[in-house]
User: What shape does this take?
Amino acid sequence: MALSGAREDSRLPHACLISAPAREAALHEARRLAAAAVCSGTGEKPCGRCRDCRKVEAGVHPDVITVSRLTDDKGKQKTAISVDQIRALSADAVVLPNEAARKVYILDEAETMNPAAQNAALKLLEEPPAGAVFLLCTSNPLLLLPTVRSRCAHLSVGGGEQDAADEGVKALAAGYLKAVAAGDEAQLLRWCSQNEGVDAKTLAAFAQEVRLRLADMLCLRQKAKKLTRADMVRLCALMDRLTQYLKVNTGVKQLFGLLAVESIAGSGNRG
Ligand SMILES: [Zn+2]
Assistant: This one.
């Protein structure tokens, strides 16, 4: 679902919906984003070395809170995340962070929130407390209310091991975002013609890398250059389309054509 219009621009909460076929893959990405959000190191975040990063890694950071289904008296995991859990989270989210600049809430298996819990979560996403970041992990985003989904930036991650993108893919994504952020169509076209010889696998990795970078910007208020939130949400949707087209074997050159006309708002002949 795409967010549209400038109205949401300032109100878009710092919420990410991280979907992955495997629960662990979504959690892994959520922890990476959480570490980036609280990292106190300098340079690229998460640095992986500072006290905050190490605490997140060890699962003991007081400002990174994971909400999962509870277990009952017999040690059996309950079927749903309850509304009481979300209410407790809401109450906690208005309290200032303990150590970091913000608080991060990871919702493990967010799709297991029952309807009451989802409505409580929706209220929270509609009026998010300042400085709180919500990371909803799910293997099935369609089980979440559309209104909940539409409040989140979407990020999908692969099922298996998270291979770090190679330098070539990173450079490709960086060059693309630079041209798009500058709103420079000529620069974008040059980028397209220089790179349209890459193979489909590289283009798929490129789309994923761009999504990761956009998610970092959207969720964590990292420097976004000249991109507005509406731009970023639009670009996320464009990367999703690109990935879908690749799955049905659309030619790489055609897809670069798509990138050339649809990346910069207001350019090309968009309907
Ligand atoms: Zn760090």
